[in-house]
Amino acid sequence: MPDLHTPTHPVRLVTASSLFDGHDASINIMRRIFMAQGCEVVHLGHNRSVQEVVDAAIEEDVQGVAVSSYQGGHVEYFEYLVESLRAAGADHVKVVGGGGGVIVPAEIARLRESGVIIFSPEDGQRMGLVGMINSVVADCDFDPWQAKAACLDDVLSGDRLSVARAMTGAQTGQLPEEMLERLRETAAFRTVPVLGITGTGGSGKSSLTDELVRRFRTDQQDKLRICVIAVDPTRRKGGGALLGDRIRANSLDGDRTFFRSLATRGAHEVPEHLADVIAVAKAAGFDLVIVETPGIGQGDAAIVPFVDTSLYVMTPEFGAASQLEKIDMLDFASTVAINKFERRGAKDALRDVGRQLVRNRGAFGKRPEDMPVFGTSAATFNDDGVTALYQHLRDELAGLGLPVSEGTLPHVDVRHSSGIRQVVPTDRVRYLAEITETVRGYHARTEELAEAARRLQQVEAVRGMVSTALDQPSGRSSGVETLERLYDEARRAVPHELADQIAGWPAVVESYSGDEQVVRVRDKEIHTKLTRESLSGNKIPRVSLPRFTDHGELVRFWRRENLPGFFPFTAGVFPFKRDTEDPARMFAGEGDPFRTNRRFKLLSKDNPATRLSTAFDSVTLYGRDPDPRPDVYGKVGTSGVSVATLDDMLALYDGFDLVDPSTSVSMTINGPAPTVLAFFLNTAIDQQVDRFIEREGREPSDEERAELAAYALANVRGTVQADILKEDQGQNTCLFSTEFSLRMMADIQEWFIEHQVRNFYSVSISGYHIAEAGANPISQLAFTLANGFTYVEAYLARGMDIDDFAPNLSFFFSNGMDPEYSVLGRVARRIWAIAMKEKYGANERSQKLKYHVQTSGRSLHAQEMDFNDIRTTLQALIAIYDNANSLHTNAYDEAVTTPTEDSVRRAVAIQLIINREWGLAMNENPLQGSFVIDELTDLVEAAVLAEFDRLNERGGVLGAMETGYQRGRIQDESMLYEHRKHDGSLPIIGVNTFVKEGSEASPREVELARATEAEKESQLRRVREFQAEHASEAPAALAQLKEAAVSGENVFAVLMDAARVCSLQQVTEAFFEVGGQYRRNV
């Protein structure tokens, strides 16, 4: 442990992940350590552009910015960041970065020459997390005022850097007295109303503040200059502070807003020099100042002396009505907002608070509903309750001198949110508790039935032996009569169906005992080979059966395991694997669509089945088009393929028959998944149209085109990830408000049902990215299954039948090195099947959980990269043993770059060697019967159900997300892994043990797969040409799309048409207008 540097100045830092980068696990660990070392951290979260980071650095007047970059384009991003800071006069700000092995030594050297402090994996191993942070804190421990003092004229003219520096001087007491007096005088002269916003912790003050600012900007057409001052508490121990309000703000773009975060730097609710900071804002020419304070208790009203009017924000859960008498701010607040109005009891809370205000103000002649109390839901986009609150505050502030016009927002007559649609209805919020009760009850019943079957078998055996010994008919002696009575009781305890299953077991054993099994399905005989012969001449059974003779053990086996293809599908959802199709599904995506198309053809060469998995570049993942701006340009075609239009999608899958039964396409896309899916389905349809034209020599009629579309939709196979719950919890490629994104998912599924899309999964419910964000295998599985059940409840609430949509749900897991990964699929299948059958009454097809496995990206290390293939091989082996339905094996160099042709060939070989060379892979249920596998299965299942209980206590998945529970758990588990990796208590070969010494330890040069300049320029040109070609059609299509969203139509139905003439970013921006932007969480 290095000697920790104790800052002599208040060190302020901005932390963020780079643009189009959702990998925020490491930067969250870093910001926690920064705080622990006494820094004030303005955390921006993931997906932050250079402009956003620069704006934050200037307005927050920080000494340094720390940015993680794991998604490529880092050279362009960091160099652009340094240049932008220099151009803004903030070249004193230190720029710190890291990206694991993704940033290779040559790039590190180049960035260091540009003035960026870059940490490599070797630095991390040598210095440790705390050592790296310590060095950054030491570098940033300087006085910004000494770097450049604020100039009065610049402050008065509104220069942002000078205003920020003056606020720093006001808070530290460094402003010269003469300058401070001038600022106070100017502030007193100007009429600038100050709105104070305070309330209980967790009431949504930051979100509500942002929604109010957004409405001010929209309603007043950006004519107002608004300054927001957000106060957060300083930690008494260590002196650090998380300044976490800016991350919630989506309304700060442009130069009409200014946001400053302040730490209290003391035990009080507000900083000592808050009045002077407000004076700086007034003197700088802002029209409105909003001051938001930290969460308070019942008795604190410290904000009141500093503001002209105040808003108190609370939630419906304040307890008994008598508790309202203890809330000090209800005596002082001009207005009260009951936020999160979608919660139970909100209307009662509105009434009770209104009554309390009548009493507090002595307004006994007024009705409670006439009091300035509003019910709001800041999390709901365009909430009318928030609009009502805004219009009330606007009018009040106008009376205090705010220069407002009539405004563009229509007047609302409500006083609280109306028409809130809950994703999961209130009466279904206990769904996870019901599932745990169902699964535990099922297992309890299993033990009862096993004991009953065993007892019947035992009594039957004794009955037979006694009868033989007495050599007389049963029933002649009292002992035999007693035995007969026991037999009758035991027989009644065993259900007829179970008794028939026991009686039929020998026939089942017989059917698996020969060389071939023949099954008749719809007058057709299906022949399946039951054995495979080894070189030694032994016949290895494809499925091995238990040799139990005890009926209790048989019953326990059937109900807990069963043979592959039989409920509860613990060993697999199909009786046998396909001989003609390995589970291999290889990931590809780099450069432009033409280059990735060539890679797909390489991967599928000589394979009887074409199973393509598509990686999109980060620009596409965040719903944007290629752009020449450096922080965008550097990521075009990097770490994935660039797809911005239907033309791109047509080029990407050119030469592949998307309706061929042996072709299957998986697309890893989430936030903009509806648009990319529309591109893909249109591509499948267009292929059929092109074939018709080629075959018939003419264009199809409207009726023929509809038939071709129906055929394509009925036969296309594959999956789109589209899992927005997981994105909020771990992966972070969220674009729109969660409510709108979930609505879009349901729209897609309804459209699938209507158009009979039965072979394509509408969602891949993903635990992989939860694991990559840092979760352990238990949390990965529990959160993923819980998300799956949440979709079930949401779709049921939309009126869909479970057997119409459940077969369109698929899952996606990671396989890592932990022991629990060996049983992940078994546990998932069993819990899902039991819940679907016993709780939801679903049919057999709906009970079958099908999942894809990708070997762990987190277990790939830049040090000793050749060892990565060993880890990947072990992870692939347990996936194949556990009957994963498809499998992607990572290339050994993916810790550093998009895989090269050679590394992909090795990754494919891993699967081929296991499936075709590895002897035990001849058998398809090798895990069954293992004591340790049985015990691990029960342990993991119990842990998952316990996690369901914890989620249920927090209001289910959505309630837990609101408090950041899943994200917090993932961060904690990630931090534990990183600490144990760094201190060596978690051995990682070639990284922290068995490490090469001397020159051999230096990282080797690897071939980097990057998009070429020609490919990037080509993509820029192609999207411009597409937009120009459809310039006359796109506006009307986008207008129809927005109208469908506002009116409640099925948006995906309209999107299928819009995707033909609009680019990805055009659709994204249209959805922002009607669905709102995603609001990040700390």
Give structural attributes.
1082 residues; alpha/beta; Rossmann fold; 4 domains; seven-stranded parallel β-sheet; six-stranded parallel β-sheet; 12% strand; globular; isomerase
For the biggest sheet, the summary is:
7 strands, parallel
Low-confidence stretches: none
Structural class: alpha/beta
**Silhouette:** globular
Radius of gyration: 32 Å
Q: What does it look like?
A:
- 47% of the residues lie in helices and 12% in strands.
- With 1082 residues, the chain is of the alpha/beta class.
- It folds into 4 domains: 12-146, Rossmann fold (3-Layer(aba) Sandwich); 149-406, Rossmann fold (3-Layer(aba) Sandwich), CATH 3.40.50.300; 431-553, no CATH class; 586-991, Alpha-Beta Barrel (TIM Barrel), CATH 3.20.20.240.
- Strands 9-7-10-6-11-12-13 form a 7-stranded parallel β-sheet, with helices on both faces. Strands 5-4-3-1-2-8 form a 6-stranded parallel β-sheet, sandwiched between helices. A 5-stranded parallel β-sheet has the order 18-19-20-21-22, with helices on one face.
- Helix 2 packs parallel to helix 3, helix 9 packs across helix 11 (274-283) and helix 15 packs across helix 30 (824-839).
- The chain is globular and about 115 Å long.
- 53% of the residues are buried.
- The model has no long low-confidence stretch (mean pLDDT 93).
